[in-house]
Task: inverse folding
C-alpha cells in the first residue's frame, strides 16, 4: 500500500531501522513479570507494538494504576536508562529540550578577546560544548539504550505540547544555531496523562494509545500477592474482592492499586488473617481519602439482605 | 476475506460511527496488523485499539464494531450446527447426568437439544455457581439457539432476541437463587460482609453471561446479514454526541464522568486568560537575579504577574418539566462546577426562583444535592409552568446587586415562556453589570423561536446563545470562551 504522505518516506524508514527488542507479546509479558509488573494482554501488546512500530505510547487512566511504573519496569526489563521529564504548568523549551550555557559562552568570549576573529568566536560559542542538554535532547543523543518517560503530559499548556511533536514523530530536535540532531538510537517513549484535559489531536496521532484501568479481580489479587511479602492467598483474595465492591460504589475517589497495596500491608502488620466487618471498617481510611466516601463504604459493606 | 479488505471496511465503519480516525492512524493500524497475527484475537484487538482509538470514551463503540467485523474468526467462534453434538456437548451431557442424579434422567445421547428448559436453567445455575467460563459460553450459545427464535432475514434488532433469550432463562431471579443456594451450602452463617462480596461476585458473573449471550446473538446476526448491515443497525452515538434530553441512565452515568474534566477546563479557561493577559509591575529582585547571567546587565527584565482573580460564576437554570432531562444534567454540571470555582452561586427557577448554592455546598453526594434541590427549593410561584420573565425579575430584584464586573452569568434553559411577558430588560441590565452573560439552550437550533420559545428576544442582550444538546457542543462552548 503506497500513500503519498509527506512523511511517508520517513515512516517506512523508521520502521525498518528499529531492531526489535522483544520476540513476541508473551516475551514482554513474562519480562515485565520478572520485574514484578503484572501486565494484562492490552498492556503487553501495546508495549510490544511500540517497539515494533517505533512509536511513543500515550498512557492514560486514573491515578495510581501503575502508569509511571510501567515505564520504569520496561526500562528495567530492557536494561535501559530511564530519562524522566516531569511536566508541569510553565514547562518550556529551556527545561525540556536544551538551553545555551550563557555563563560559559560569556566566559569564552571574555577569555580571549584579542586573538579570535568574530566569526570564529560566533561559531565556537554555538557548538555542542556550550549546549546544556535537557531530558528530551538527552534521550535522543544518548549512546546507550534509553527509555524516555514524559510524565503527566496533561499538565503542560496546549501550546507547550508542540515542543514534543518533533521528537515524538521523527526522533529529532532542531536547534536553530546548530541544525538538526537526529536520534542515535530510537528510545522507547512513554507519555502518561491523568486526563485532566484533552490532549491535542496532533499529539495523540503520533502516539499509540493505552488506557490503563483498575485491574480486574484476578490481576489485582496477583498484584497483591506479588507485592506484599508473606501474604496468604486467602487474604489477598478477600482484599481484592472487597476493593472491587468498593470501586463499584459512586465515590469521589475510588481506591487505586497503590492504596490497595497499602491496605494489604496494614492488614499484615495488624496480623489479620481474615477480614471481618469490624476490621474492614476500622481500616477503611487507608483505602479511601474522603470522609464521605468512608462513611458510604462502611454503610454499604455492612448491608444485610 | 483478505485482512486488508476487512480492515478498510472496518475503518470506514469506525469513521461512520464518528471516531476521528486519521490517515496516519490508518497506516499505523496496517503496520500493526503486520506484526500481530489475526489469530491471536485479543492481541489483535488491542493492537487495533492502540492505533485507532485515542479516547477511552470511544472504546465501547470500537469494541462493538470490532466484534461485528472480526467475530467470525477462529475455530472457537464457529456457530454450532443444529443437532451436531461435539465433544463439548457430550462432556456437558455427562455433567448434566450428575446434576439429575444417578442415572435417573434421560440417559445418554441427543446432545444438548434434548434438554428441557428447566435443565438448562439448572446447568446455568451450576455454571454460575462455580464460575465455569467455558460452560457459561457454551450455555450462552445453546440458549440463544433454543430461545431466541432467530429466523434468517427477519428485520428485528438484537435487543429483541436478547430479551427473548433472557426471559426464558429467568435471569432476574437467578441472583436470589444463587444467594440462597450459597447460603445453604456453606457450613456456618455468612457474615454480612461475606454475603455482600458473594453477591457482587455473582452479579459480575451474571453480567458476564449476559454479554456472552449478546455477542452470540451478534455473531449470528452478522452471519445472517453481513458485517456492514449489522454495524449500521448497531451504530450508537459516541458519548459526546448523546443528547442530554434523551439520555438513558447508562448514558447519563458516562456523561457524569466526562463532566469533571470539562469543568476543570472551564475553570482553567476563565483563570488563564487573566494570568497571561497583562504584565504587572517590574519584579526588581527577579530582574537583578537574572541580570547575573548577562554580566550584571539587566537585559531580561522580569515582571510580576497579577495574581489571577478568582472567577465568579452565577448559574441560573430552568428546571421545569419541558427540560427535565436537561435539568438533571444541568444540576450535575452545576455541582461539578461548584468544586472547581470558589465563588459559584447557583439558582434554579420554574416560575419562581430560589438560590440553591447551599444545597450543593453542604453535601458531597450529588444524588442527595439534586434531591434536595428538587424537593426543597422554592421555585413555584403560581402554577409551576415556566415563566422566565417573572423568575428573571425576581432574580434581579434580589440578587442583581451582587453581579459585578468579575461575574460571568450562565443562563440555562429553552426559553419556552408559555407566552408570559418576557422582561428581557433584565438580561440587558445583567449584561451591563456582568463580565459576560451566556445562554445555553438544550433545544435544537431549528426549534428556536418557534411556538412559545423566545430565546431570540433574550439572546439579543447576551454575549451569545449556544446550542447545547450534547457534550461535544458544551465542550465547544467551553473551548471557545474568550
Result:
Amino acid at each position: 500500500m503506497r500513500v503519498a504522505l509527506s512523511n511517508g518516506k520517513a515512516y517506512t524508514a523508521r520502521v525498518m531501522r528499529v531492531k526489535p527488542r522483544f520476540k513476541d507479546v508473551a516475551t514482554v509479558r513474562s519480562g515485565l513479570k520478572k520485574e514484578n509488573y503484572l501486565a494484562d494482554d492490552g498492556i503487553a501488546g501495546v508495549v510490544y507494538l511500540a517497539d515494533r512500530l517505533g512509536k511513543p505510547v500515550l498512557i492514560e487512566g486514573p491515578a495510581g494504576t501503575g502508569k509511571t511504573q510501567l515505564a520504569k519496569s520496561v526500562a528495567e526489563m530492557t536494561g535501559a536508562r530511564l530519562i524522566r521529564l516531569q511536566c508541569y504548568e510553565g514547562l518550556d523549551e529551556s527545561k525540556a529540550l536544551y538551553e545555551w550555557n550563557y555563563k560559559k559562552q560569556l566566559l569564552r568570549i571574555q577569555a580571549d578577546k584579542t586573538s579570535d576573529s568574530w566569526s570564529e568566536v560566533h561559531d565556537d560559542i554555538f557548538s555542542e560544548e556550550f549546549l546544556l542538554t535537557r531530558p528530551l535532547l538527552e534521550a535522543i543523543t544518548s549512546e546507550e539504550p534509553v527509555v524516555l518517560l514524559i510524565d503527566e503530559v496533561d499538565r503542560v499548556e496546549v501550546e507547550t505540547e508542540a515542543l514534543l511533536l518533533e521528537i515524538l514523530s521523527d526522533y529529532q530536535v532542531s536547534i536553530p544555531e546548530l541544525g538538526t540532531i537526529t536520534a542515535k538510537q530510537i528510545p522507547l517513549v512513554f507519555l502518561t496523562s491523568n486526563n485532566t484535559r484533552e490532549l491535542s489531536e496532533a499529539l495523540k496521532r503520533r502516539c499509540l494509545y493505552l488506557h490503563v484501568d483498575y485491574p480486574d479481580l484476578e490481576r489485582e489479587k496477583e498484584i497483591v500477592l506479588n507485592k506484599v511479602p508473606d501474604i496468604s492467598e486467602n487474604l489477598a483474595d478477600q482484599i481484592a474482592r472487597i476493593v472491587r465492591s468498593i470501586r463499584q460504589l459512586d465515590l469521589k475517589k475510588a481506591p487505586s492499586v497503590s492504596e490497595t497495596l497499602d491496605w494489604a500491608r496494614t492488614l499484615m502488620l495488624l496480623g489479620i488473617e481474615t477480614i471481618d466487618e469490624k476490621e474492614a471498617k476500622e481500616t477503611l481510611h487507608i483505602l479511601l481519602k474522603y470522609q464521605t466516601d468512608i462513611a458510604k463504604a462502611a454503610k454499604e459493606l455492612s448491608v444485610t439482605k | 476475506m483478505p485482512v486488508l479488505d476487512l480492515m478498510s471496511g472496518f475503518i470506514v465503519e469506525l469513521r461512520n460511527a464518528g471516531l476521528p480516525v486519521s490517515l496516519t492512524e490508518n497506516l499505523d493500524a496496517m503496520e500493526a496488523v503486520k506484526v500481530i497475527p489475526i489469530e491471536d484475537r485479543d492481541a489483535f484487538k488491542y493492537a487495533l485499539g492502540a492505533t485507532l482509538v485515542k479516547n477511552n470514551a470511544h472504546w465501547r463503540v470500537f469494541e462493538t464494531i470490532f466484534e461485528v467485523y472480526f467475530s467470525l474468526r477462529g475455530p472457537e467462534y464457529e456457530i454450532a450446527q443444529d443437532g451436531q453434538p461435539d465433544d463439548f456437548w457430550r462432556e456437558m451431557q455427562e455433567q448434566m447426568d450428575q446434576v439429575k442424579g444417578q442415572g435417573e434422567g434421560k440417559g445418554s445421547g441427543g446432545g444438548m437439544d434434548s434438554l428441557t428448559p428447566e435443565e438448562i436453567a439448572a446447568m446455568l445455575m451450576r455454571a454460575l455457581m462455580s464460575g465455569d467460563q467455558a460452560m457459561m459460553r457454551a450455555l450462552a450459545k445453546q440458549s440463544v439457539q433454543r430461545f431466541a427464535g432467530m429466523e434468517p432475514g427477519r428485520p428485528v434488532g438484537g435487543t429483541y432476541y436478547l430479551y427473548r433469550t433472557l426471559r426464558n432463562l429467568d435471569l432476574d431471579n437467578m441472583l436470589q437463587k444463587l444467594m440462597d443456594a450459597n447460603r445453604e451450602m456453606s457450613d456456618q452463617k455468612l457474615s454480612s460482609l461475606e454475603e455482600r462480596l458473594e453477591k457482587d461476585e455473582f452479579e459480575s458473573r451474571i453480567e458476564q453471561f449476559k454479554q456472552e449471550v449478546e455477542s452470540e446473538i451478534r455473531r449470528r446476526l452478522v452471519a445472517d446479514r453481513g458485517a456492514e448491515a449489522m454495524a449500521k443497525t448497531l451504530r450508537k452515538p459516541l458519548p459526546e454526541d448523546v443528547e442530554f434530553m434523551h439520555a438513558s441512565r447508562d448514558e447519563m452515568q458516562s456523561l457524569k464522568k466526562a463532566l469533571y474534566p470539562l469543568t476543570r477546563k472551564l475553570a482553567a479557561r476563565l483563570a488563564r486568560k487573566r494570568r497571561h493577559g497583562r504584565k504587572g509591575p517590574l519584579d526588581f529582585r527577579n530582574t537583578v537575579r537574572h541580570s547575573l547571567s548577562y554580566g550584571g546587565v539587566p537585559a531580561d527584565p522580569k515582571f510580576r504577574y497579577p495574581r489571577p482573580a478568582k472567577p465568579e460564576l452565577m448559574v441560573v437554570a430552568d428546571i421545569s418539566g419541558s427540560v427535565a432531562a436537561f435539568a438533571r444534567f444541568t444540576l450535575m454540571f452545576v455541582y461539578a462546577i461548584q468544586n472547581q470555582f470558589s465563588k459559584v452561586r447557583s439558582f434554579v427557577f420554574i416560575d419562581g426562583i430560589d438560590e440553591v448554592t447551599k444545597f450543593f455546598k453542604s453535601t458531597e453526594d450529588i444524588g442527595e444535592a439534586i434531591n434536595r434541590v428538587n424537593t426543597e427549593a422554592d421555585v413555584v410561584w403560581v402554577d409551576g409552568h415556566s415563566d422566565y420573565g417573572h423568575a428573571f425579575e425576581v432574580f434581579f430584584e434580589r440578587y442583581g446587586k451582587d453581579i459585578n464586573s468579575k461575574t460571568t452569568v450562565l443562563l440555562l434553559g429553552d426559553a419556552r415562556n408559555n407566552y408570559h411577558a418576557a422582561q428581557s430588560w433584565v438580561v440587558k441590565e445583567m449584561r451591563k453589570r456582568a463580565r459576560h452573560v451566556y445562554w445555553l439552550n438544550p433545544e435544537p437550533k431549528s426549534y428556536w423561536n418557534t411556538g412559545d420559545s423566545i430565546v431570540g428576544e433574550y439572546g439579543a442582550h447576551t454575549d451569545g446563545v449556544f446550542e447545547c444538546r450534547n457534550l461535544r457542543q458544551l465542550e465547544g462552548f467551553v473551548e471557545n470562551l474568550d
